[in-house]
Write a structure and sequence with these properties.
This protein is an all-alpha fold. The protein has a single domain (about 30-145), classed as Up-down Bundle (Four Helix Bundle (Hemerythrin (Met), subunit A)). The protein is about 75% helix and about 0% strand. It contains five helices and no strands. The chain has helices at about 1-50, 55-75, 95, 100-120, 120-145.
């Protein structure tokens, strides 16, 4: 009887470990998809700022909304189990300098919110995208490893 109990517990533990591994891969995929959406928003912003496409305030608001979603979700997508796997490019600094990472994501969120509140035309959009873009660049330099 005791042997069966240990066998059942071992099977359950293995199942929980497998479920956690799967959920961590899902988390990595979610943050990668979020970054892809932010990158696509950045391309839209860049095209409007360069005059390649006409400035459209509604599209500008969509760009900022994509970044706001990123700012909201990103801080929750780095549990310890997601340090490796699924082709992650998250740098160890995210976990080693957790307070710095939290501060960087908070600054990004605040700057995106300010951009949402103050973007009214192409000039304000350009200025706001420059500010938000610095956040992206700084964060990627510190908290991302370049894919090989």
């Amino acid at each position: 009887m005791l042997g069966k109990l240990f066998a059942v517990m071992a099977i359950l533990a293995l199942g929980i470990t497998t479920a956690n591994a799967q959920s961590c891969e899902d988390i990595i995929t979610k943050r990668q998809n979020l970054m892809k959406a932010s990158g696509a928003a950045g391309k839209t912003a860049s095209a409007m700022m360069k005059g390649e496409t006409p400035f459209d305030l509604d599209k500008a608001k969509e760009v900022l909304a994509a970044w706001a979603e990123d700012a909201k979700e990103m801080p929750t997508l780095f549990p310890d189990c997601s340090k490796t796997g699924a082709h992650t490019t998250a740098a160890p600094a995210i976990w080693d300098k957790a307070d710095d990472f939290k501060a960087a994501t908070a600054k990004f969120a605040a700057d995106v919110k300010a951009a949402q509140d103050s973007t009214k035309d192409l000039d304000t959009f350009k200025a706001n995208v420059a500010t938000v873009g610095k956040n992206c660049s700084n964060c990627h330099q510190t908290f991302r490893v370049r894919p090989s």
